[in-house]
Amino acid sequence: MPSFVDRVVLHLAAGAGGHGCVSVHREKFKPLGGPDGGNGGRGGDIVLVVDPNTTTLLDYHRSPHRKARNGAPGEGDNRSGADGADIVLPVPDGTLVSTRDGEELVDLVGAGTRFVVAKGGNGGLGNAALASKRRRAPGFALLGEPGDTLDVVLELKSVADVGLVGFPSAGKSSLIAAISSARPKIADYPFTTLTPNLGVVEAGDVRYTVADVPGLIEGASEGRGLGHEFLRHVERCKALVHVVDGATMEPGRDPLSDIDVIEAELEKHGGLDDRPRMVALNKIDVPDARELVDLVRADIEARGWRVFPVSAATHEGLRELTFAMGELVAAARAAAPPPEATRLVLRPTAVDDSGFTVTNEGERFRVRGVKPERWIRQTDFTNDEAVGFLADRLAKLGVEDALIKAGAQAGDEVVIGGEDAVIFDWEPSIHAGSELLGPRGTDPRLQ
Ligand SMILES: Nc1nc2c(ncn2[C@@H]2O[C@H](COP(=O)(O)OP(=O)(O)OP(=O)(O)O)[C@@H](O)[C@H]2O)c(=O)[nH]1
Ligand SMILES: [Mg+2]
Fold this sequence. Notes:
The protein has 447 residues and is of the alpha/beta class. It has helices spanning 58-62, 127-130, 172-179, 255-269, 287-301, 318-335, 370-377, 384-397, 399-405, 430-437; strands spanning 7-13, 46-50, 65-67, 87-91, 95-99, 104-108, 114-118, 149-156, 162-165, 198-203, 206-212, 239-245, 277-282, 306-309, 343-344, 357-360, 364-368, 413-416, 422-425. Strand 16 and strand 17 (364-368) form a beta hairpin. Helix 8 packs across helix 10 (430-437). The radius of gyration is 32 Å and the shape is elongated. The chain binds guanosine-5'-triphosphate and magnesium ion. Residues 172-173, 192-193, 212 line the site of magnesium ion (MG).
């Protein structure tokens, strides 16, 4: 059975920032100019954009690894490195983005809606930008930061006003083809439809969208047939229409029990009780089916649902059906607030990104904070002067003092960051040492 692709896991890597450059200006007869190392470029972002021409997640199923370009390193003569190009991934309307743990990040609804799902790293400052009165000729530059790397789950939940539900081969796709300009695949074997088809219907002055759902069978919610996960596509629908096959020859099936089976699956899926329903008794061009209409109509109407005998084949009854669906949609629109805007769930960031915390973990002290952790990533630990600069920054932020307050002593282990943290043997004097080192620079060309 072909796989149904409305859920994919994407492996994303935004671009890394380019490193800053260490360079010293040279000119004939002026051997010692100032520092002129340029900044590294930004790494490219990965952006999801709702594109009406994209209807499936198939492309991402085939190639789930996406990587944006890195920023270029800075160069001498104050030339900044080029930014890495963003990559833009088109997704269908109604794509839900979440983490692998199931935490919802964003619900992308409406053409053109954008979401930066992976941010590129900032470029590192070159030594020109790091120069100050006190540090006239820095012999180091900052490293570019890595870009976000993460896995996200994309799930497609169609955005349609009316959802058609029913057994395989009941004629749901045929109905969509008959009432809209959509041209879904139609065939006389079950499970023809593997991804929902979406059609736009105009009935009087109401314009609405209709989607079908792959055929349901008893036990779908336990994974039989194509499984009930398809029902997620009708979660957003304002109304449901049962499409019932009036001409099926299968033993044990009749319109009333078919409806009961589908209702039981909807019930198990949950969350759809409040959606108004109607019934389209299809295939009345077949004499047996036409006879059934009068036998079952009263029972269905007793549930409060309107019944429409139709034929997707001859188009009989379709005008009444589409106008009635339009009425339901219009009523739902009038009752509900305006179309749902994109719901953004922002990833939790540190409460205060200017601060930091120091915790005594027994064996070591741990420093957490947006700034200290970023500074660590920017530091070239092979360069003493860069390490001194880091120590200065940490001291200025108050990390040094906080460590002393927390009881840290020379030689204790200090960790800055979370999982892939950097571990130091703490030397309170590193601060003072860097002061000495700092202003002068170690670039041998400057001696
Ligand atoms: N005689 C007659 N046949 C119909 C009518 N509507 C659909 N059919 C036939 O029924 C079969 C199934 O139609 P589909 O539209 O593919 O059914 P479906 O409900 O989308 O089926 P799945 O996608 O498999 O769930 C096809 O052979 C259609 O030609 C109708 O009104 N009259
Ligand atoms: Mg179909």
